[in-house]
Design a protein that fits this description.
- Chain B: One of its GO terms (molecular function) is sodium:proton antiporter activity.
- Chain B: Keywords: Membrane, Transmembrane, Transmembrane helix.
- The complex is a heterodimer of chains A (87) and B (121).
- By secondary structure, chain A is mainly α.
- Helix content of chain A is 83%, strand content 0%.
- Chain A has three helices and no strands.
- With 121 residues, chain B is mainly α.
- Chain B has one domain.
- Chain B has four helices and no strands.
- Chain B is elongated and about 65 Å long.
């Protein structure tokens, strides 16, 4: 790796992601798990940006943009499914 | 000097991301968990992108490589996309959770429910 300080930052963000993953696994209801997945999406975007700088590759940051937009669409579709139909 | 500022921004980012993910375990119901997690992780991502932009501008000044300008601009685009879509997604999840029957814990009054029944304006 070329810039190690951003790699250590990514390790911290990954730790936060594992704490979130525990809530996704043991959430008592379905909206709790959806909140956990939405938080995990934001953390993955932050970690991917930091990893792209750490390895000095710009393409990881482009993938982070696409991941942010696609995870937003996924969140909206899950919310639409939860509230029961198209109204 | 510039490394100290980058380390400070990364430390703020990691602190707020970990606090946001811990708030998922400390709050009682869906709405307060959404409140804590969404705000804290958005704030943490803003500071991570600030560190990336500062580092890229510094590298651009030293090496004069246009790759670093591209890195700064693309991370700014990712930050803008995240800041536009994150509150919208949180609002959609909150409304869907209320309509799917998940009630707020320890709440005295539920104005959304009262307005749906037509008791208040």
């Amino acid at each position: 790796m070329i810039f190690p300080e951003f790699f250590y930052g990514m390790i911290g963000v990954a730790l936060a992601g594992f704490i979130t993953l525990a809530r996704v696994m043991l959430g008592p209801s379905v909206p709790d798990r959806v909140v956990g997945v939405d938080t995990l999406n934001t953390l993955i975007v932050a970690g991917m940006i930091l990893l792209g700088v750490a390895y000095d590759r710009v393409i990881y940051i482009d993938i982070a943009i696409v991941y942010a937009l696609l995870s937003y669409i996924g969140t909206l579709i899950i919310a639409k499914y939860l509230q029961g139909g198209l109204e | 000097m510039i490394e100290i500022i980058i380390y400070a921004f990364l430390a703020v980012s990691i602190t707020f991301n970990i606090l946001g993910s811990l708030s998922l375990h400390r709050f009682p119901d869906v709405y307060t968990r959404l409140h804590g997690a969404t705000k804290c992780t958005t704030f943490g991502t803003i500071f991570a992108v600030f560190a990336v932009v500062l580092h890229s501008i510094w590298q651009l000044r030293e090496t004069n490589d246009p790759k670093y300008l591209q890195m700064a601009l693309h991370s700014m685009v990712a930050l803008i996309a995240l800041m536009l879509t994150n509150p919208t997604g949180a609002h959609a999840i909150a409304k869907a959770a209320h309509l799917s029957g998940s009630k707020p814990a320890k709440a005295v009054i539920d104005a959304y429910e009262l307005r749906a029944r037509g008791e208040v304006q």
